[in-house]
Amino acid sequence: MKIHLTSVFVDDQEKALRFYTDLLGFVKKHDVPLGGTDRWLTVVSPEEPDGTELLLEPSGHPAVQPFRTALVRDGIPAASFAVDDVPAEFERLRTLGVHFTQEPREMGPVTTAVLDDTCGNLIQIVHSQ
Questions:
Q1: Regarding beta strands 5-10 and 53-58, do their DSSP bridges make them parallel or antiparallel, or are they unpaired?
Q2: Which of 56, 58, 119, 121 has the highest count of CB atoms within 10 angstroms of its CB?
């Protein structure tokens, strides 16, 4: 068994697509209209185009807003993405205007940083020593 798809709820799918592709470097995999303004919109790592997909899921369900608000308030990331070098990625993204809620921090064998995806989520980047 392996993970095929996971998701983050986003306030605005088009804005999220721009953030996740233009800034984070993912590539669009699927973009299927679902009726109205909602889409089945996924991105993948360019390094693994057939790997795990991230669904940029509309946040319209009533349970989403209180859940995301609580996560952000408590500083809990909605997702975690592996990078080769957290300090280098932190500097690259910060130069592009990405806001971080946690600067790079070494925690034993891992280094992490947490960014705001501008669509309602905190996202952690991580690398292992």
A1: parallel
A2: 56
Q: Which helix (H) or strand (E) holds 65?
A: helix 64-73
Q: Which amino acid is at 47?
A: E
Is the Cβ–Cβ distance between 45 and 51 less than 8 Å? yes
Q: 28 near 126, Cβ under 8 Å? A: no
Strand partners, 100: 115
Give the Cα separation of 125 and 59 in Å (integer): 22
Q: State the pTM of this model.
A: 0.94
Q: Residue 49 has which token pair? A: 């185009």
Span 3-47, pLDDT tens digits: 999 999 999 999 999 999 999 999 999 999 998 899 999 999 999
